[in-house]
Amino acid sequence: MTYAKGHGTGNDFVILPDPDGLLPLTPRLVAALCDRRRGIGADGVLRVVRAGAHPEAVRYAGAAEWFMDYWNADGTYAEMCGNGVRVFARYLTEAGYAAGGELTIATRAGVVRAVVTADEVAAGLSKPRVYGQSVARVEGRRYDGAAVDVGNPHLVCRVAGTRELAGLDLSTSPEFSDADFPSGVNVEFSAPGVVAVPGAHAHVRMRVYERGSGETLSCGSGACAVAAVALADAGLSAGTVAVDVPGGRLTVVLDEETCWLAGPAVIVANGTVDTEALDVRLPGPDGSRPVGVAGAGAK
Ligand SMILES: N[C@@H](CCC[C@H](N)C(=O)O)C(=O)O
């Protein structure tokens, strides 16, 4: 099986080119590919399939040629992945599947635009919807947060400063309310940045524990959620926010309708993987293709 590996600010993905949707992708194969010791290692998988060749995306085929079939490292799949869209666009361009410049990409959360330049890729996600309050707990300590929908679910918790942010133990999932987030949630912790960034209304630092992947170096949809909350806290509904994640800097520009997420996105390897050596059981001769369901817990 051929693959590529890429990342956006350290949020890394195994990319599986499968234009005609023939690959028997299962939750178990995804988890094996993402295993950092026994597989290739990644936060998730991006399957590159024509929208017209995937049952979940065929309705978008008139608006986008390609569907980003995104899976978390644990074999569940999610509605949206902001860094995934950016890396997907970079891959399409470098692999010759798209001309570059501006393109549209179908996702489970709808069609998004991407703009590819030499230094970065920007993705136009739907505007984050801040819709409620909830809490997370880390090592018994309570953090109040805002529930935000970016196509996928987020809980943005504010912490006082960068020292507290750095000290959080995110080696296991923060506790959250199953009632508030029945399909699980990505939990972001955000602290005010210490330096003013030219052109930005706000500068924040964030860490994230991703549903289905654990702590990652970056989360694009999470950065959009954090930016929306930072602007709302400042009484703004639009503006530019510099979001520093452990893997680098993302820039989020919110206007009245769209959330533009920009930063570096690179492809670092192309190769082949021996799926039998991964010790996964592929679907049987009946051709059945087991699939996950959106959100954590699908196996
Ligand atoms: N890293 C992604 C988000 C991936 C999906 C997430 N783990 C979920 O289950 O919703 C991003 O860059 O947005």
TrEMBL record:
- Cite the annotated pathway: Amino-acid biosynthesis; L-lysine biosynthesis via DAP pathway; DL-2,6-diaminopimelate from LL-2,6-diaminopimelate: step 1/1
Which superkingdom does the taxonomy of this entry point to? Bacteria
Reaction equation(s) it catalyzes: (2S,6S)-2,6-diaminopimelate = meso-2,6-diaminopimelate
Localization recorded for this chain is:
Cytoplasm
Task: Give the Gene Ontology MF terms in alphabetical order.
Answer: diaminopimelate epimerase activity
Which UniProt keywords are given for this protein, alphabetically ordered? Amino-acid biosynthesis, Cytoplasm, Isomerase, Lysine biosynthesis
Tell me the active site.
Answer: 81, 81 (proton donor), 219 (proton acceptor)
Name the Enzyme Commission number(s) assigned to this protein: 5.1.1.7
Matching Pfam families:
DAP_epimerase
User: Per the record, where is site Could be important to modulate the pK values of the two catalytic cysteine residues?
Assistant: 154, 210
Keyword 4Fe-4S assigned to the entry: answer is no
| Subunit structure, interactors included | Homodimer.
Please explain the role this protein plays, according to its UniProt record: Catalyzes the stereoinversion of LL-2,6-diaminopimelate (L,L-DAP) to meso-diaminopimelate (meso-DAP), a precursor of L-lysine and an essential component of the bacterial peptidoglycan.
Family affiliation: Belongs to the diaminopimelate epimerase family.
Spell out the protein name for this chain: Diaminopimelate epimerase
Q: Which organism does this sequence originate in? A: Planosporangium thailandense
